[in-house]
Amino acid sequence: MPFPSLPDAFFRPRNIAVIGATKKAGFGGGIPAFLKRNGYGERLFLVNPRETEIEGLPVYRRLTDITGNIDCAIIIVPKMQVPAIMKDCLDKGVRAVILETAGFSETGDEGRTLENDIKELIQGTHTRVIGPNCVGLINPHDRFGSTEVDFDEIRPGNIGVIAQSGVFGNIVADWSPSQDMALSALVTIGNRIDVDESDMLYHFGADTKTDVIVLYLEGAKDGMRFMKAAREVARVKPVIILKSGRTEMGKKAAASHTGSMSGDDALYEAFFRQSGVVRASNFQELFDLARVFSREPLMEGPDISVVTSSGSLAVMAADAAHQLGLGFPDLGQETVEAVRSRAPAWMNVKNPLDVGPSGLFGTALKAALNDEKIKGVLAIPVIPGTIIKSMVESGMDPALLYGDPESIRKTAPGKPALVYSVGSEFWTKLVKDMFGPHFTLISSPDTAAKAFFALYKYRQFREKIKNEQ
Amino acid sequence: MPFPSLPDAFFRPRNIAVIGATKKAGFGGGIPAFLKRNGYGERLFLVNPRETEIEGLPVYRRLTDITGNIDCAIIIVPKMQVPAIMKDCLDKGVRAVILETAGFSETGDEGRTLENDIKELIQGTHTRVIGPNCVGLINPHDRFGSTEVDFDEIRPGNIGVIAQSGVFGNIVADWSPSQDMALSALVTIGNRIDVDESDMLYHFGADTKTDVIVLYLEGAKDGMRFMKAAREVARVKPVIILKSGRTEMGKKAAASHTGSMSGDDALYEAFFRQSGVVRASNFQELFDLARVFSREPLMEGPDISVVTSSGSLAVMAADAAHQLGLGFPDLGQETVEAVRSRAPAWMNVKNPLDVGPSGLFGTALKAALNDEKIKGVLAIPVIPGTIIKSMVESGMDPALLYGDPESIRKTAPGKPALVYSVGSEFWTKLVKDMFGPHFTLISSPDTAAKAFFALYKYRQFREKIKNEQ
Q: What DSSP character marks residue B374?
């Protein structure tokens, strides 16, 4: 059975109304300009009884004054006006409403009453609502968004992100380019009078552009429905969750932030384990895991290898891997020979494979990736910054020392292959350029271990499901 | 009793011999050029029987051919020549020998025998030796180093770093500028035939330029002596250690890397706790803690506050703080009133202090820092990238939204104050420029909690010692 999707009008609207458009700075002025800049000028209808023209576009007094069809409305009016505007949206048959206005249940009883009034209005209708108290969504594939972001920076891709608060969603979007995250869409769900995290899980579960789902959660709106959705969707796509509000202090902070009830963390933990959901333990790890799952194949066994020019960093990776239960087996005879035959006498051909200054990084990396026993490889190329800088500046091709990452990776596309590096800015940028397109960058040796572990466990989970069917 | 120091000649040599200097690329050519570039030309004596002139300097056949005094020798000859060269160093009365040559005990029995021969040579003499199998040290204060680094990038400061392998030391030095780490010195101790981690702990313990000591350790050369040194030095300065080789796999990797015996991790853990040593749990945390201890005062109590414009990030910090046992108390009446009097109705004046888009970040930050109950503050300024970019580009001073971090910090110099941010590159750079000089940057909300905890626990430790005396 396919998962229920949200109306396409949320992500690829034909005609968009911005209700509360203004000439002033802020959301009211920013969003119309942003949409126009991104090619939505001809399909953009602005509504505000006190304006006549904004950004060269006519301004309508009411939504119902617009003659054509409107499938998506972005509401940014003051909260007391929202019920009337929402009625207009219903009258107009708008399928997708993005309600950004804040000041509802998150501020106390008065706001809660108003929020409930709006909730009642939409019940039983064909109109779906995202918000209030959010910034809606962005869809980088079509450069559509209900919040201003820089689509020249944010990359379209296959990661669907579900956030709750608007600021958090915005900064995640802003951060994503430097984190090498390419997004199918990012949605902030706010106070969830209608669309909630469960709807979003199902939506991204069904969305063909989304391969990985990322969710930041303080507390589920409906715990039972959330668990059902997460369980069902995790069976078909990786679902990576950062659940905060784990502790008493965190719960208290979450309650005053989004009014979320964070629930018992031990229950969530047990549920995540059983249902194949990948749990990130912190913010950076959430994005590392998202990046890895969005680019790498799952891992077919627990055994990994590290190829490095820093023994120390390999020891850190080995510690982290061991703690998670991954294996670091001896390399196969063929692998050892492939490297040994070219290696200087001092070089230990072992796992981890520390090539030191032998110049055999590429050789070792290819051999390890093609070792039958090894199911995932972490490359840790490091080199003193002044050495590599003067080499490159004098015209040397770094491939002489590191091989050609593209062709090396092509010999083993079915195994996850990560790359970590550290050092001067010159070097880390070079690694990003050289390895980044072919090996997935990871932010620490520890996180690399965590990512391999998650790729392996999720594959086990998928295999288990297959066998049950 | 003062701690024993290494000869000053290691860090501020008067006359330096480079034995094994060459015209070729690599260490032999690089180090003489590097020292000359950094102003050591007139005090630099090159030795190599097969050369006559390098970098415009005369080359001596043997160290003993040099007429003047030599207090520091850097040895980069092939390993079989090392015993003869070392004899020359002894004859010449060189106080400080940096032996960079590799190929000794780390490569097997033959190398171990040679290493032992050298060890015997130096025993009972006044010559101290760092190495072999290392790159020696760097001292950014005097732009002296036995390995090529970029002293235009690496900042002189108060953090003393002890590393074992050369590559690791080099990449840490390369990384330090982007990590905002300012170094008193960085020493790689290699195979430790003489100077080891305990000597270095004592040395940095006595060094007036060093306020914080950072040690990456796979295994101590002499466990009992190391514990004694760490215990004694931690009583006077913070000692931050990343101990790897914690697990079976890590130990195995460490043994093949540096021949270190990593020992029982539980014993180390217990020892660190008792003796006030700060243990970092990973590579990034090691540098975060070093940066914080090098810049911030210790924390006088367990209670912290977070001032933020992202509730989500505050929840993450609260979770991490609670898990460590820190407190997140309600703010004092005065603090609440100072903020409340200027705050919009929707704003929750609580701890964490989420100022949202109120523009009161600076007001709230100052109030929290000056709250008597609060002993440490984490600032988390975040804002959608497009908003701040267009504001700044249209000439707005960000201080209108965030206050003046310099004057705010000056109101509470005695409390640790950290700053974390995330988002677009434009924004994170702005935060670094605005807050970075006055608040210490931290790499995650979790690490902020860990840093506060370490500052608090170390203060407790110091108080306990004081009371015992």
A: -
With contact defined as beta carbons under 8 Å apart, do A280 and A244 qualify?
A: no
Q: What homologous superfamily is domain A297-461 in, according to CATH?
A: Succinyl-CoA synthetase domains (3.40.50.261)
Q: Which tokens hold the place of B114?
A: 């040679």
AA identity, residue A307? V
Residue A58 has a CB neighbour count (10 Å cut-off) of 11
Chain B contact present for A258, CB below 8 A: yes
Q: Specify the pTM.
A: 0.95
Give one word for B263, left, alpha or beta, with left for phi > 0 and alpha for psi -120 to 50. Answer: left
- Cα→Cα distances A365→A293, A403, A449, B446, Å: 21, 9, 17, 34
Q: Does domain B298-461 have CATH number 3.40.50.261?
A: yes
**Contact between A385 and B150 using a beta-carbon 8 Å cutoff:** yes
Contact B289, B337 (CB under 8 A): no
Q: How far apart are CA B463 and CA B447, in angstroms?
A: 24
State the Cα–Cα distance between residues A449 and A447, nearest whole angstrom: 5
**Angstrom distance (rounded) from CA B324 to CA B279:** 14
Contact A385 B174 (CB under 8 A): yes
Residue B259 confidence class, pLDDT cut points 50, 70, 90: low
Interface of A with B in 306-345 (CB under 8 A): 309-316, 318-323, 328, 345
Distance (Å, rounded) from C-alpha A91 to C-alpha A82? 14
- Which residues in chain B have their CB less than 8 angstroms from residue A282's CB? 316, 320, 444-446
What mean pLDDT is predicted for residues A386-413? 93
**What percentage of chain A exceeds 90 in pLDDT?**
84
Task: Count contacts between A and B (CB, < 8 Å).
Answer: 234
Handedness of CA B108, B110, B116, B122 (dihedral sign): negative
DSSP-derived 3-state class of residue B158: strand
DSSP for A54-107 reads: ETTEEEESSGGG--S---EEEE-S-GGGHHHHHHHHHHHT-SEEEE----SGGG
Quote the CA–CA distance of B19 and B362 in Å, as a whole number. Answer: 57
Which residue stretches of A93-144 are H helix?
109-122
Q: Which of A457, A286, A447, A311 is nearest to A382 (CA)?
A: A311
pLDDT tens track for B74-84: 999 999 999 99
Residue among B254, B258, B315 whose CB faces A244 most closely? B315
Q: Is the ipTM of this structure higher than 0.90?
A: yes
Per the structure block, which two tokens stand in for A292?
Answer: 């890895």
pLDDT of residue A247: 84
The answer to whether A208 and A233 are in contact (CB under 8 A) is: no
Q: How many helices (H) and strands (E) does chain B have?
A: 17, 19
Same fold across A8-292 and A297-461 = yes
Per the CB < 8 A criterion, the answer to whether A54 and A30 are in contact is: no
Residue boundaries of the structural domains of chain B? 8-292, 298-461
- Topology of B8-292 in CATH? Rossmann fold (3.40.50)
